[in-house]
């Protein structure tokens, strides 16, 4: 059984590069995240292949549409056998309820989490689209709605984890990108936490891309992250 907290982000343009990496990893030691780029290029066959290879797949397509359309997309994702999928919290209560209802009816329901406020959005960006609450308050509002509508948790910044964990308890799943092991390049990430810090703060799953995907030995890098969590969290 896979109890890894690490979700490796497959930010690759195609199948060949993806499979080169996944062949070097171990489905018992990590899970995989497929986002818009890879899905748009390779679609369901790649997901099915990775699931056949034994991997848990987080389909990160951030659905945001009318409730009926999002519910149908969630069912389609569940039919593919993904382990986790997500919707934008800003799609609203009715949309989240429809997504939850669709997933709940499924014979093998995936985890369903909501994206709160994208960490790329500044307060100025939020003001410009008419979201006038401070970012941290907006994140709480979205997380509260996700909890109330029966979703399993949220994707959030590691900086927000301890507050959300305190407020929403142990059963609320917190998924955090922006993770960098000690000494690793930050690349374009601005506010980062180490794996151990994020887990100590209350994160359940860590989305980690380049520190693993660009490592000379990806499995070794993954194992070093596991060790860092074991020793320090
Ligand atoms: O390579 P790196 O570890 O920075 O990859 C992080 C992954 O998490 C990327 O797929 C990125 O798009 C995603 N992500 C993020 N910050 C968010 C939401 C998603 O870095 N707020």
Write the layout of secondary structure elements.
Layout: E1 6-9, H1 15-24, E2 31-34, H2 36-52, E3 57-63, H3 67-80, E4 84-88, H4 93-104, E5 111-115, H5 123-128, H6 135-148, E6 153-155, H7 161-168, E7 173-176, H8 195-201, E8 205-208, H9 210-213, H10 218-232
Helix pairs in contact: 3-4, 8-10
Bound molecules: cytidine-5'-monophosphate (C5P).
Helices and strands, in N-to-C order? EHEHEHEHEHHEHEHEHH
Number of distinct helices: 10
Whole-number mean pLDDT: 96
How many beta strands in the DSSP annotation?
8
Number of domains: 1
Classify the helix fraction into a percent range: 40-55%
Strand line-up in the sheet with most strands: 1-2-3-4-5-6-7-8
Instruction: Report the span from N to C terminus.
Output: 22 Å
Annotated CATH topology: TIM Barrel
Net shape: globular
Which ligands accompany this protein? cytidine-5'-monophosphate
Q: Could you say which structural class the secondary elements and strand pairing correspond to?
A: alpha/beta
Rg over alpha carbons = 17 Å
CATH class: Alpha Beta
Under the CATH scheme, which architecture would be assigned?
Alpha-Beta Barrel
The biggest beta sheet reads: 8 strands, parallel, barrel
**Quick one: CATH superfamily?**
Aldolase class I
Sequence stretches where pLDDT stays below 50 over 5 or more residues: none
Our estimate of the beta-strand percent is 15-25%
């Amino acid at each position: 059984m896979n109890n890894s907290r690490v979700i490796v982000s497959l930010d690759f343009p195609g199948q060949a590069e993806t499979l080169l990496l996944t062949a070097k990893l171990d489905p018992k030691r990590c899970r995989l995240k497929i986002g818009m780029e890879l899905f748009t290029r390779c679609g369901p066959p790649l997901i099915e292949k990775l699931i056949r290879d034994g991997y848990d797949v987080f389909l990160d397509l951030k659905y945001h549409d009318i409730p009926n359309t999002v519910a149908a997309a969630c069912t389609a994702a569940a039919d593919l056998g993904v382990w986790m999928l997500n919707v934008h919290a800003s799609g609203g209560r009715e949309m989240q309820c429809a997504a939850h209802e669709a997933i709940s009816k499924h014979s093998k329901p995936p985890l369903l989490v909501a994206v709160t406020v994208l960490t790329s959005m500044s307060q100025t960006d939020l003001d410009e689209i008419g979201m006038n609450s401070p970012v941290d308050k907006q994140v709480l509002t979205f997380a509260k709605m996700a909890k109330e509508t029966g979703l399993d948790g949220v994707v959030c910044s590691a900086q927000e984890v301890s507050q959300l964990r305190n407020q929403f308890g142990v059963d609320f799943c917190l998924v955090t990108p922006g993770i960098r092991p000690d000494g690793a390049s930050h690349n374009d990430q601005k506010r980062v936490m180490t794996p151990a810090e994020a887990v100590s703060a209350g994160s359940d799953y860590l989305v980690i891309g380049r520190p693993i995907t660009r490592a000379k030995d990806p499995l070794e890098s993954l194992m070093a992250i596991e060790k860092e969590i074991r020793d320090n969290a």
